[in-house]
Amino acid sequence: MLFVSPNSALPTILHRYANKTMMYDTGSFGKTENIFSTQNWERHARMRKLLAGPVSGLVPPKDLPFTNVKKMEPLIDVRIQHWVETVSAEFSGKGETFDFAYWAKILDARTEDGKPLDTEFIKAEVLILIAGADTSGTAFQSLVHFVLANKSVYDKLMAEVDGANIAGNLSATPKFDELLKHCPYYIASTKEALRLRCLAPNLLSRLVPSEGSVVEGMHIPGGTELTCNPWVAGRDEALYGSDALVFQPERWLENGDQTALYEKYSLAFDYGTRSCLGKDIALMELYKAPL
User: Fold this and answer.
1) Which positions ≥6 away from 266 have C-beta within 8 Å?
2) Facing residues of 20 across strands?
3) In a 3-state reduction of DSSP, which class is residue 218?
4) Can you tell me the distance from the alpha carbon of 20 to that of 42, in angstroms, rounded to the nearest whole number?
5) Which of 217, 251, 224, 250 is nearest to 8 (CA)?
6) At what angle do helices 184-196 and 135-149 cross, to 10 degrees?
7) Does an H or E element contain 161, and which?
8) Which of 1, 80, 246, 288 could form a disulfide with 225 if both were Cys (CB 3.0 to 4.6 A apart)?
């Protein structure tokens, strides 16, 4: 396996026609193939086409992205409110240890006739818990850590949120569009947390086609496994500068062209056509829930 670190190499390694390697076929999720473990790019494209519309809304017309997820926002608001009320009652109110495993209910799920789910089905679908719950929890934790560890960031972020709230620009449960419009520093802080503490710091490996490939001026023989890592990519000084290790939300607000490059090379949700289908839902959760 060849590890490549420059962000400039990402489009060459993680292009739409690249097949995933056997690394994704660990057997952890059973024998049932899912969209994450699918190695062949053509088969993945067919599966993604079926799921992309309902999950993310990224289907024609191209000028209306995010449509289906925004329709789900009221439901997300209900779950956030339920979460706040439960934590307040069971944790804050009683001062008892709160069991977060309570929310992982897939093992208790039943079929229409009341029988437990098939083991292979559970193995395949448990990915939902790992990708949709554990990663979001990691992101929340990272954001809180970085903000509380940097007093200047905390003061600036709270002043922005309090100002927007006093001005009547935020609902009781802030809406996604409200946050984008009135809380840019808060949004930048979330993106900066994702940069430094990626949700899934695994190796995003791809298989070089039989004819070989040229990466950063170097010929790579066919059959070679190429990989990059979000943890390393998020600290690339060639892209983020000499302060790449510093939590600095301002970097996302200072220069539009530079911010576009940060977005282009972000590996927070994988890359390109293999990017996480739940990205839009995750971002809505990440922007809304902490407030």
Assistant:
1) 191, 194, 195, 234
2) 206
3) strand
4) 11
5) 217
6) 110
7) helix 151-166
8) 1
Closest CA to 272 of 82, 30, 28, 12: 12
Give the length of the chain: 291
pLDDT by 10s per residue, the chain, length 291: 888 888 889 999 998 999 998 877 655 555 667 777 788 999 888 888 777 766 554 444 444 455 667 778 888 888 888 878 877 887 777 777 766 655 555 566 667 788 876 776 666 666 655 666 778 888 889 999 999 999 999 999 999 999 999 999 999 899 999 999 999 999 999 999 999 998 777 777 899 999 999 998 999 999 999 988 888 999 999 999 999 999 999 999 999 999 999 999 998 888 888 888 778 888 888 899 888
pTM of the model: 0.82
The single-letter DSSP state of residue 110 is B
Of 58, 5, 4, nearest to 273 by C-alpha is 58
d(C-alpha 172, C-alpha 160), whole Å: 16
Buried b (16+ CB within 10 A) or exposed e, 150-167: beebeebbeebbeebbee
Structural tokens at position 185: 């520093």
